[in-house]
Every structure is written in structure tokens, then in C-alpha cells.
Amino acid sequence: MINLLKKIEVWGDSVLKGVIYDVQKKKYLRLKMDTIINKLSELGLSIKNNSRFGMTAPKARNLMLNSLEKGTKADIAIIEFGGNDCDYKWEEISEDPKGHHLPKTPINSFKECITDMVIRFRDHGIKPVLMNLPPINSEKYFNWISRGLNADAILSWLGDKELIYRHHESYSLAIMNVAQKLSCPFIDVRGPFLLKRDYYNYLCEDGIHPNEEGYNIMKQTIVKYAINGV
Q1: Could you read off the pLDDT of 188-198 as tens digits, one per residue?
Q2: In CATH, what number is assigned to the domain containing residue 121?
């Protein structure tokens, strides 16, 4: 139960960094207030957020190992990755739709990274808590990643746009599988989105980052875990 602990380290990507896409300014921005991290701090917890935009599990593991070697101290570590790991180099796919393309972090390597992070934190007396991924919207995300590229070529390689959702979901399921295999505490932020019939309205224009309403869903879920340990 997080509420019995005092110091938490957060390791994630732009989702736990509180990044949204501002349509009017046409750029990514961080939420300025009422964020997940701020709410946890209000509960009397000391939070260090190591999340970074574009972060993948392998990059984070290297940073984490370096942090542990320096003697970082924490009671718990929340771990959230996969959104960038499952992504592809869409420019290359656009140019060569018949080629063989791999995600930034192949799923087996992704599982190994998450597993290693859990084990390393435990070895240092820090309790890891895994978190799955908010769902994406294939239509929005396809339109986003194909901007300025050959959309027909990308679609030819995909076969159908919904492959984007299924591929992303496989990484979220991988996190859940690791949690189950290692008996690791787990926060399900995906479920509350999927219970919304119009969950896509809780995502930004890019189809992958939660918007402010989406972050509110995540905040409620994580705070509930922090208070109740469920």
C-alpha cells in the first residue's frame, strides 16, 4: 500500500510526465496544475518523477541502474513504459512498405527490460509497482503518424489501421504478464478508459496521449491505489 510509504520514484515516459498536445499552439506541453504527481504530493508523499518524453524501457533501465549505483533511496518505484517502445520508424515504413520493420523495442526485449527493472529495484529494497498503458485510438494515431508521409504505403504495410491498437495493446498485456509472473503490484489505468464508450474523446489529437479529461481518469485510478492499495 503506497499510503504507508513516504518516498516514491516514478519511472515512465511522457504519459506520467503529464504531456498533452495543445491544438491551438500546435505543440506538446506539460499540464501546469492538478497533475497526478501533484495529487500524490498532496497526500503527503515525497515524489521524484524521472519520466521523460520519448523514453523507452531500455533507455530508462540504463538511467535506473545508474541511479541505483549512486545510492538512490526510495520506498517504491512506479514503472510505466511501452508507448514509445512499441512505436515504429514510420518514415522508413513510408519509404519501404514491403520491407521488414521492427518496433523501437521488440516485445521480447521489452519484457526483459521490465523484468530486470523489477528485479533490480527489489534487490535494492525498493518495491516496484507496474502500470499498464492507456489505450490508443488507431484512427487518430494513424492520421498523426502519417502526416507528411505516404499514408497509403503505411496502410499497405499495416494491413489495417486497427493493427496499431492491437500492437500497442500487446505491450500493455506484456506489462500485466510480467506483473503476474513476478507477483508484482500492478495499477490498471487502461480498464477505466475502456469502460468509457467514447474513450477516444479522452485522448489528444495524436490519439495516444491522454487529454486533460483522460489524465483525470488516470489521476483518480492512481490516487485510489495510493490510498487503498488496490
Answers
A1: 999 999 999 99
A2: 3.40.50.1110
Q: Is residue 230 part of a domain?
A: no
pLDDT at 3 over 70: no
Q: Tens digits of per-residue pLDDT, 17-26?
A: 999 999 999 9
Question: Does residue 219 lie in a domain region?
Answer: yes
For residue 179, tell me if it sits in a domain. yes
Answer yes or no: is pLDDT of 4 > 60: no
DSSP string, 143-203: HHHTTTS-HHHHHHHHSSTHHHHHHHHHHHHHHHHHHHHTT--EE--HHHHHTSTTGGGGB
Specify the pLDDT at position 2: 47
Its domain, for residue 128, covers 2-225
For the entire predicted model, the pTM comes to 0.93
Number of domains in the chain: 1
